[in-house]
Amino acid sequence: MKFKFKIIDIQEDTNLNCYSVLTVVSIRDFIEFIQPIHKQKGNLDDQREVLQTRSAKIIRNQMVEDLKYGAILPPIVLGIICNEDINDKNFFNLIQDQQKISILDGMQRIQAIKDAIFQKEITHNLRVEFWFASDESALLYRMLVLNSGQIPWGLDKQLEVVFKPILQNLKATIPNLENLISKKIYKQSEIVELFLAFTSRKVRIDKKQQLAEYHAALDIMILIRERSAHTIGKFEEIFRLMTEIDQLLEEIENRYVFDNQTARIGFIVACAEKIFGLLGSNLEKQYSQIESNFHDIRLKLYKIKDKIACQSIEQNYNFLALDILKENLRSIPKEKHRQAFLDGFKVIFSEPEINSFAVCWHKMY
């Protein structure tokens, strides 16, 4: 296939550190090239398959008829993981291994082209854009942008795409997490919610409203793009420390720290606010300050973890000051509990040392 793609333009995307290569190829040659990739759902685990809904079939059938009469389709977009600078000399070598090529945008169009050439000889050309990226995150970001607003790529699917590698990393760094999930101590949906709470710095994520879904999808794309602050890595580290503290306290029932989602949300947002600042503070771009804040948080949490590890069950029960916590919660409306825990856990990072969680609970709403 080396000489069947004609390079029209090569541009570097300095935002995501990617290269875009726009090419032209005959439809026949392209289908021969893309056939094994298309059969494997685009060589991308999270790519949607060819849609079989009634409306999708109607649109695809119309596309087939248009192609037979010489219609020109928008470019198909393919992705390749590659750390090299791209030029017209190494491009052809890099696209030889089809197992490394993913379909970012065009599953439906490719199916329409296959259907059309089965019915009629089609000789005109097709534009194909290749995206060369250093990691999968950049390709996923590009795919989310290309698929935004299309059905059935709703928020849940986009969360699944973005969160999948995060969950894999969490399982790799927290050996017991798989077991905790299987025992329903941690639910995957709850970890996703914690992730969203951390990135949005909000104790409540309303996924039901269409407008909220739209903005959440934008937040996710921004999160992938803003990798300079290493947001995902910071969430993984905070989550790991939270689960380790929780497991050290597992013999204490109804402990809140951290055996339920309400307390976890309050804690994770308190950490996010300490790291990235309050919403609207514009601290997000001050990377040295963010790293300093994150360093301070880790020291505080390791100190608390080490203290709990050295104490008896009775000492830890007293350390948690659960009597004060439960009494305070009884006077707070249930719908305000997340905010109450957020207010309480902020004290961890404002005090030089925590000798009792009572100082946290006295600051609750």
H/E series: EEHHEHEHEHHHHHHHHHHHH
Biggest sheet: strand arrangement: 1-2-5-3-4
Shape estimate: elongated
Strand content: 5-15%
> Largest sheet at a glance?
5 strands, mixed
Number of helices: 16
The count of DSSP E runs of length 2 or more, i.e. the number of strands, is 5
Helicity, in percent?
55-70%
Global mean pLDDT: 82
Backbone CA Rg = 25 Å
Instruction: Report the end-to-end length measured between terminal Cα atoms.
Output: 66 Å
Unreliable stretches covering 5 or more consecutive residues: 42-51, 149-153, 208-215
Structural class: alpha+beta
Q: Which labels suit this protein?
A:
365 residues; alpha+beta; 16 helices; 5 strands; elongated
Short description:
This protein has helices spanning 27-39, 54-68, 91-94, 107-119, 136-147, 155-173, 177-182, 188-200, 210-225, 231-248, 261-276, 287-310, 313-320, 322-330, 337-350, 358-361, and strands at 6-13, 18-26, 76-81, 101-105, 125-133. It is of the alpha+beta class and 365 residues long.
Could you please describe the fold and organization of this structure?
It is a single chain. It is elongated, with a radius of gyration of 25 Å. It starts with 5 loop residues before the first strand and ends with a helix. With 365 residues, the chain is of the alpha+beta class. The protein has a 5-stranded mixed beta sheet. The longest helix has 24 residues, at 287-310. It contains 16 helices and 5 strands. Helix 6 packs across helix 10 (231-248) and helix 11 (261-276) packs across helix 15. A hairpin with a 4-residue loop joins strand 1 (6-13) and strand 2 (18-26). It is 56% helix and 10% strand.
